[in-house]
Design goal:
The complex is a heterodimer of chains A (297) and B (247). With 297 residues, chain A is mainly alpha-helical. Chain A is built from 12 helices and no strands. The longest helix of chain B is centred in the last third of the chain and has 18 residues. In chain B, the strands form 2 sheets. In chain B, strands 6-7-8-3-9-10 form a 6-stranded mixed sheet, with helices on both faces. Classes of the chains: A mainly alpha (297), B alpha/beta (247). The interface between A and B is medium-sized, with 18 and 34 residues. Bound molecules: adenosine-5'-diphosphate and magnesium ion.
Chain lengths: 297, 247
């Protein structure tokens, strides 16, 4: 468990991890944590400033901003996380099988991925929304459908490379089963790669789902979602700019934390790097995802 | 014990539309007896490593048969632990996430050893290859090339194999370390009475360790001679190979 020790020594990583765990927990326990009903409208309290009862103030319909922020964690982070786990799971299985066994199976699976990948992710998502209608579930389905081939391809490439290593040859030579080789050797060495691609796409997926909600294609009013809160605040951007602050900061902080964690994970999981690592990379990749996420909208 | 008959292997040539196949091995015949050390010598690209992989049962030959104690080597359960291997590239021969202990334990677990017995055996094996207990918790990147090869040898003999395929096992080591590992191999071969398939391009190393050498050129066996008769090789290619060393 050396990597755990490495991770514990990295303060930025620990801070990001704690932050994300707290956010996720807040999302799960939203009904207990949120001070008010996120959908309750109080027209008399429109644009009320922060008070003891409403710590982050009220929005244009007098709803509690803090409660909406907390409930917004569910679609913005938790559901995205679930979609990510599902697509990495499917992609991982396909990638492992294709990369390890090669041959015809590999060819068939990869052509299937190529077909899926030949549609740009956004076109796929929009097509599915067009067919199945607007809504969070459909966007999540579209995410899984459009992301798994990509994960499958990336994971296959790393599995293929690791399956060539001499330690795998040795294990095969002395007669260890394919299943054990995959779980004890390849899964182990491929985990950092998978963790890094998964966590770095989590950042962009959070931005995308917020983007779709911002455009009104994702979760439907009056449910709370960070991108949608931003979209609602946009209408009063010049008179009440502070309303953009809460959801905006929530998105930025969460995506940054995810990206810092992704980077720290990569270094922590590498047995060769031990405890000496460089940090500046994290910032670059955080900016990177941010930019690509934005340009996608 | 090991009997290779009429083995041929071809690989598809690189390139998307190429249907051509490159014949890497053709019509290979040889046999290796219990306790014998057979050297397989040839220049780079002559198909030695491919032959090694076929003997280990990692890949299937296109034609011919490879029998180990009368059974085909491609049957995984039949050969479990009886044939073992040491490879050339010490940077990738141990899983970078494994400690020395975990790497050797993999072999011990295969033969059903566990607990205290395995731990004692591990110390014994490490001692036998000239490493002490402090190496147990080290990762491969913390070891020198020679030390990694020693661990690989310990891991290879851990399953009490009848035969070990050594594919360029010393070629990537420095001169003096090469000699030490060769001596270790020679000594282990005598204690365990294992047979070696010593694949190398280094005739001198083969002459030191082997009883017989088989000279391979472009995927064919050119000549097989006992080490004592190396000077009397017949074929032109073998003479040329030998001449380069003698000069
Ligand atoms: N997996 C493979 N796919 C395609 N060609 C291969 C493969 N393995 C080996 N070859 C080819 O077979 C030939 C012999 O390689 P190898 O057995 O490694 O030779 P040696 O070990 O004697 O240097 C080389 O020309 C190499 O390009
Ligand atoms: Mg070779």
């Amino acid at each position: 468990m050396k990597w755990l020790k490495n991770a514990l020594h990295d303060k930025v990583a620990m801070a990001s991890f704690t932050f994300l765990v707290l956010i996720a927990a807040a999302g799960i326990f939203a009904p207990f944590l949120a001070p008010h009903d996120p959908k309750a409208v109080h027209m008399d309290m429109r644009f009320a400033p922060a008070s003891w009862e409403y710590p982050l103030g009220n929005d244009q319909l007098g709803r509690c901003v803090l409660s909406r922020l907390i409930y917004g964690i569910r679609p913005s982070l938790l559901w995205v996380l679930a979609a990510l786990v599902l697509s990495v799971g499917i992609g991982g299985i396909v990638g492992f099988v294709a990369g390890y066994f090669r041959g015809r199976l590999d060819a068939v699976l990869m052509r299937l991925c190529d077909v899926m990948l030949s549609f740009p992710g956004y076109v796929m998502t929009l097509a599915i929304i067009g067919i199945m209608g607007v809504g969070l579930e459909n966007i999540l389905i579209a995410f899984v459908l459009s992301k798994w081939p990509w994960f499958a391809r990336v994971i296959r490439t790393s599995v293929r490379q690791y399956a060539e290593a001499d330690y795998v040859r040795f294990a095969k030579a002395i007669g260890i089963s394919d299943w054990q080789i995959m779980t004890r050797h390849i899964a182990l060495v491929a985990t950092p790669d998978i963790a890094v691609i998964a966590s770095s796409s989590l950042g962009s997926m959070i931005l995308q789902i917020s983007g779709f909600s911002f455009l009104g294609l994702g979760i439907q009013a009056p449910n709370a979602e960070w991108g949608m809160m931003l979209s609602e605040a946009r209408e009063v951007m010049f008179s009440r700019p502070e309303l953009m602050l809460a959801p905006g900061l929530a998105i930025v902080l969460t995506v940054c934390a995810v990206n810092f964690l992704a980077d720290a994970l990569q270094t922590a999981l590498d047995p060769k790097l031990g405890r000496s690592r460089q940090k500046p990379q994290a910032l670059v990749s955080a900016l990177d995802t941010g930019i690509s996420g934005k340009s996608g909208r | 014990m090991l009997k290779v008959e009429g083995v041929a292997k071809a690989y598809k040539k690189a390139g998307l539309f190429s249907r051509e196949r490159e014949q890497v091995l053709a019509d290979i015949h040889f046999a290796c007896d219990y306790g014998e050390c057979l050297g397989i010598i040839g220049e780079s690209g002559s198909g030695k490593s491919t032959l090694g992989r076929l003997v280990l049962g990692i890949e299937q030959p296109d034609r011919g048969s490879i029998l180990f104690e009368g059974e085909s080597v491609t049957k995984r359960r039949g050969r479990a632990g009886k044939i073992s291997a040491v490879f050339q590239d010490y940077t990738s021969s141990i899983n970078p996430f494994y400690t020395v202990e975990a790497a050797i334990m993999e072999s011990l677990r295969l033969i059903g050893m566990g607990g205290q017995e395995a731990s004692d055996k591990l110390d014994f094996l490490l001692d036998q290859v000239g490493l002490d207990r402090s190496y147990r918790q080290k990762h491969p990147h913390e070891l020198s090339g020679g030390e990694v090869q020693r661990v690989c040898i310990a891991r290879a003999v851990a399953t009490n194999p009848t035969c070990i395929v050594l594919d360029e096992a010393i070629s990537s080591l420095d001169g003096s370390v090469q000699m030490q590992v060769l001596q270790l191999l020679k000594q282990l071969g005598q204690t365990y009475r294992m047979s070696y398939l010593f694949i190398t391009h280094d005739l001198q190393a083969a002459a030191y360790l082997c009883d017989r050498v088989m000279i391979v050129h472009r995927g064919r066996v050119v000549e097989t001679v006992a080490v004592e008769q190396l000077k009397d090789v017949q074929s032109a290619y073998a003479r040329k190979l030998l001449g380069m060393v003698m000069l």
